[in-house]
Specification:
Two copies of one chain form a homodimer. By secondary structure, the first copy, chain A, is mainly α. In chain A, 53% of the residues lie in helices and 5% in strands. The first copy, chain A, contains four helices and two strands; from the N terminus they run H-H-H-E-E-H. Chain A has helices at 14-34, 51-71, 85-102, 125-149; strands spanning 114-117, 121-124. In chain A, strands 1-2 form a two-stranded antiparallel sheet. In chain A, helix 1 packs parallel to helix 4 and helix 2 (51-71) runs antiparallel to helix 4 (125-149). Chain A starts with 13 loop residues before the first helix and ends in an 11-residue tail after the last helix. In chain A, 33% of the residues are buried. The A-B interface holds A 6-14, 16-17, 20, 24, 45-48, 108-109, 111, 124, 126-127, 129-131, 134-135, 137-142, 144-151, 157-158 and B 6-14, 16-17, 20, 24, 45-48, 108-109, 111, 124, 126-127, 129-131, 134-135, 137-142, 144-151, 157-158.
């Protein structure tokens, strides 16, 4: 891509988008924590996935997406088997740390470039990153319904 | 804000973020359409709001947010009363058209400035816009659960 593209008017800097995403990730972590241990991988509505499975899917997208964008290594081979809540949270935190290390290594011009994520999803890099974030918000919203249906008050959406 | 801020590395241009949001809005419109008329304002899970009420809340945030950012007029006084699905869709489309007209009027440097949305929510303009978008994704995800619980297949998340 031509270098002048990084000089066009912009909405958000890479550092600010990382802050924005990590704020969402803190909220999603609180939603995982809010589930009773025995409901995380067993409870669902309308034949959808339990929230634990959604959380593992998020983990299998988030750091692997950023890593792929930085390194070209799109490995996504983690197990999606049910596991104790503490293990999900440990994987979540591991992802968080890796994202913080990888993110500043995204070359500034790369956000406008086209890549094929995981060997099958082509798009501009900013679109791939927004997909990871938007998909997390989408499924976390579904987790809110599960929690409400279980009689549990979810964490406030606006607290990050 | 100093003008050089618009020359820092950036993730997404204003025009691309509008495209991204309008893609999400097309999906949300399909979710509204997917609800049976008699369930839009009556069905809910876990004492949450029906999806029709969530959709009206999105309408009361989306165009008013962009208008406020452009003009300083933060009026949000639309009625949130239940209404026929076609009327919700008409309001949705009206919002869409107004957003398309207002968005290019956001001065490029404003995205980094701080404003107080609706007289009570201070934040960087990009944060206020992401709030409107993220809140839409969050509640639309909840609408997916309602649809699944009603035995209705929601539109594909990745189609925009």
């Amino acid at each position: 891509m031509p270098v002048e593209n990084v000089h066009l008017p912009h909405v958000i800097s890479p550092a600010a988008l990382l802050d924005h995403w990590q704020g969402h990730r803190r909220l999603t972590r609180r939603v995982i924590e809010s589930f009773p241990e025995d409901r995380l991988f067993s409870y669902s509505i309308g034949l959808m996935r339990p929230f634990g499975a959604m959380a593992l899917a998020m983990i299998s997208i988030a750091e692997p997406m950023v890593r792929g964008i930085v390194t070209g290594n799109w490995d996504q081979s983690m197990s999606r088997d049910a596991r104790p809540k503490q293990e999900v949270l440990r994987l979540w935190d591991e992802n968080t740390g890796k994202i913080n290390i990888l993110w500043p290594q995204i070359p500034p011009e790369r956000f406008q470039e086209t890549m094929t994520a995981f060997g099958q999803y082509p798009g501009r890099v900013y679109e791939l990153l927004f997909y990871a974030l938007d998909n997390e918000i989408h499924h976390r919203g579904q987790g809110y319904v599960y929690l409400r249906a279980l009689g549990i008050q979810p964490p406030a959406f606006y607290e990050r």
